[in-house]
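Q: I have 285 residues here and want to know how they pack in 3D. Can you give me a structure?
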Amino acid sequence: MEDSKERIRKPDWLRVHLGNNRQFSITGAIVSSRNLHTICQSGRCPNLGECWNQGAATFMIGGDICTRSCKFCNTKSGKPLPLDPEEPLRIAQSIRELGLKHAVITSVDRDDLPDAGAGHWAETLRQIKAYNPQTTLEALIPDFGGDTKSIAGIIATAPEIISHNMETVRRLTPTVRSVARYERSLNVLKQTGASNVFAKTGLMLGLGETEAEVFELMEDVLAAGCYFLSIGQYLQPSRKNFPVEEYIHPDVFEKYREKAYSLGFRHVESGPLVRSSYRSGEYLK
């Protein structure tokens, strides 16, 4: 079954923009020289070229090995290395060197740590703010095992946006995500939405979800106090990952965008190549 689905021909609207300008090279050199990780690379993001051409990158902290093995994700899974105490400073310095007006930070899941990496997260955000007081921030966080104290620690650092992805609809969550739970992710959004920080979430299409299930998810996250939403096409990164059930036409993405706004979302990015951190700074405008 997987082989037949893997041979589904990608439509023309999924053409990827390759990076080839001077800024692309500068961004790559800074990431490499400071021994940093980006979800752009580990997640095989189709927008890597476009974003790096503009000097933007989504930094991934906590190493590049995740303790979970979600079926949609290309990030390596296994036993992570110890946290690097110098990483927060290197991230902050890199953001200043790139001159970013807006930065996005994400991480692997670190279920091996007592606080699931929340302390490292908070220190990274504090360092970024200290070195880059004019830079706005989006923290794309894991669920920290549902620990409200850990989430409160992230909220206390006051990034402009705290994002946590639902990824898929309720019915498909147990199949597509390894440890995460639909209700737990809603609770992360609810805790963020109740604070003075904007809550944001992301959804992938093409995993076998129905329109009614997508609308249900929209209503669930709105009820949690989350008003920022990204919707993109799932792309199978390798043979070991969940197969694509369907390539969703751009017109359908536009329909979902209009529906989301009609329900009450304040900013929506919806399109085949949209990813969680794509055009992140636009949400604050």
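Q: Anything worth noting?
A: The chain has one domain: 2-284. The radius of gyration is 18 Å.
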